[in-house]
Amino acid sequence: MTITVFIRYRLDPFKRDAFETYAKRWLGIIPRCGGDLVGYWMPHEGTNNIAYALISFDSLAAYEAYRALLRADDAGIANFQFAEQERCILAEERTFLRRVE
Fold it and tell me: N or C: which end of the chain has fewer CB atoms below 10 A?
């Protein structure tokens, strides 16, 4: 069963550019570490402080293996540090979803 991690980010609306830089960096890192990146979505109209990401995996075990690789990846580590330094992410929520078939 494929699972998709739905990540909801609450952003500092004055640091959306920093978050977009952070999100773009994941476009190469996530697939290299084993995630099937569906995409990142930035605020466009309306609410200006919410962004989303969706990443799919074959199983929860595949997700756990991905997380271990991500935490050991030099570019991944640097991107986590970038977000902390910029303080562009105020909160992050993860929900694990499965497709209804």
Answer: C
SS3 state at 87: coil
Question: Is 15 in contact with 23 (CB distance < 8 Å)?
Answer: no
Grouping H, G, I as helix, E, B as strand and the rest as coil, residue 30 is: helix
Residue type, 53: A
The CATH number of the domain holding residue 50 is 3.30.70.100
Can you list the residues of the chain whose pLDDT is less than 50?
none
Question: Which distant-in-sequence residues (6+ apart) come within 8 Å of 77 by Cβ?
Answer: 71
Could you give the number of structural domains in the chain?
1
Contacts of residue 78, defined as CB under 8 A and 6 or more positions apart, other chains included, come to none
- Quote the domain boundaries for residue 68: 3-98
